[in-house]
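Exam review. A common question shows you a sequence with its structure tokens and asks you to describe the fold in words. Practice with the pair below. Do the first one on your own.
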Amino acid sequence: MNPRFFLSSIMRPIICRMPRGRSFLTTCFGYNWKYDKIWADAPRRNRVFFDKTVGANIYADLGAWAERLHYFCGEHYDAENRLLIEKALGEADTYIDIGANRGIHTLQASRIVGPRGRVIAFEPNPRAFDVLKAHLVINRIANCTAYNMGLSDAPGKLTLHGPDGRLTASTGAFSFREIPSAGAHIKDVPVSTGDEILKDTELTGRVLVKIDTEGFEYHVIGGLRRLLQYDDLGLSVEITDEWLRGLGASAGEVFDHLMSRGFKAFQLTASWRHLLTRVLNLVPLDRPLDIHQYDVLFAKDRFLSDR
């Protein structure tokens, strides 16, 4: 047995409790994508654990780096969106997860909005969607509707491109954007507009939408014209200008499109207030940042003022 597997099992309880310094240890134990082939041979490769920050049981395949990192750290790496869900949502609100992947944020939002709230998740990757559905079952989630499809500015069928030839690895990195090194392709994936799918859905309370579609965000937003008129609305959008440009858009166009419709922009960052407490920071923006990738909250005044 690879000693990395044994030592990781011993160290996991310690890593899960560490408020800081996890990145060094996780690198030592090979939790990033470069070690997927090694971890594919791990004993009990498939694990289920409880993530107390999400409040749900989580399935993890140790052969996939993001799931492996989640398992050994005990919490999802996307702290910004987790903290935003905690801050922005309450009982009877609505969460729309576009590019839900395995449904981690879907599970957290489901718990927070409660039985009178509503969660709607979209995930086009069949493997990720299977895990999402399993998560809904094992956590007995009854307030979520999940769609195995993508969203765009027009209906049709598209091809998902993956980072390598293993459909089990990095499900969150699959994109409708052409990936030069792609070795995995899922053809004829159905897509529709968000407005069409949501036309008969009654939205309740505050509405928070997360859009993380690996460069396809501008096209997704283009299909949400009716939703964008909702007053108490916030959009958490992953911005990667290089990827947006690969699909004929840009970060500037995303900002212009939403800010011209009454949204204000804030970069989402997470920082440590105390040794054990992380807090969400909303940094006002009037234009895109000159960095590779970051999350932006586009919010209307009512969304910002209520809580």
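Now try the second one, then compare your answer with the model answer below.
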Amino acid sequence: MVLLRPAESPSEPPRVLLLERPNLAAFAPGTQVFPGGSVDPADRDPGWSRLLPSWSDRGRDPRAPLALRLAAVRETYEEAGVLLGRHRDGSRPTAEDIERLSSVRAQMRAGRADQFRVGLAAADLVPDVEELIFCAHWITPSGLPRRFDTRFFLTPWPLGQEPQPDPLGEHISLRWAAPSIALEEARQGRCQLLPPTRAVLEELATAHSVEDAMARAREARVETIQPRLEDVTEERYPGLDVSRLHRE
């Protein structure tokens, strides 16, 4: 999930949320990434149709169906504590709503992904899947020990909610960064960015505002990208420690 928030100064580009993975992580240790994770069977539960009766995958990009959107919303809440949801009247969750759902987040972190739907229904909230713009699709090169077929979604940060540190260690730090600054840090070797993260940041680096970034993403055509392993080099991606990608 690519979360965008306005900069403090209107003349500055928007900021994006980046999480830093632990150095001992099994995949891509020490890299800075967007919130996210894997689709769970609970994301395909037919019960979601009762919360989202008007949603249909028909006519939409088949690479970004409802189950993936739900996984993105769920993982963003589980990993970063940011809830992308609304009441049925369109209003955003209140601080009291977020507090009441804290126990649901704890259950999710204990492996109960099914509690996300239950908790939202009890709070009369629905996941804000309509606000997610499918903006990128990357498949890990063949030959790496861990491979992923990853879809990226762009959405505005919900005003008033601040990302939360991860007590279970899925990330060791988080920050809001200007895309161009994160890219420059990567070129200097001061942060690690995987090729998909870098590509998304490059698209966002020229946006003038959150609204501008969202409008561009709506109009863009999403290509499925699967680089060859031999093309993922430190020369092509300055500052990237390629050896980390090959660790089990």
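Model answer, second protein: Residues 66-80 form the longest helix (15 residues). The chain has a mean pLDDT of 90. Full marks require stating both points clearly.
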